[in-house]
Known about the structure:
This protein is α/β, with parallel strands linked by helices and 170 residues long. Helix content is 33%, strand content 17%. The chain is globular.
Amino acid sequence: xxxxxxxxxxxxxxxxxxxxxxxxxxxxxxxxxxxxxxxxxxxxxxxxxxxxxxxxxxxxxxxxxxxxxxxxxxxxxxxxxxxxxxxxxxxxxxxxxxxxxxxxxxxxxxxxxxxxxxxxxxxxxxxxxxxxxxxxxxxxxxxxxxxxxxxxxxxxxxxxxxxxxxxxxx
Length: 170
């Protein structure tokens, strides 16, 4: 089983760097759909990801159709959007034999509207108070959703405590 965080045309290097860090800490693949709004050599990107880049599997896709061809099982593709009707906690992500893909839109415009209209059953959302904010930060949104996926997978292959912390409790 492999989990994927997929970013559609990300614009902000700091968000992508933070998301790469989350991917490193959760053993999640990061898929980037071009064009990117920055160079992968950007100093803000590297600063946000610190020294985790070599611990993240990153796949680059020239466009959305190319990415979609790489999806092993389309039923396990989820489109994260504030306009979805089902919550991110509703789908079952627990099948250990499956790959799961969480597709997030660009920071300013989200996912393409025609694509969203063609796939409403794949759309998931994080409940939020739309009167107070337009949207949650992209890196925070990625973290919230991937940790729900991991929770349903019983945090497979992730340590629950560090040895140092465990020794302090004895």
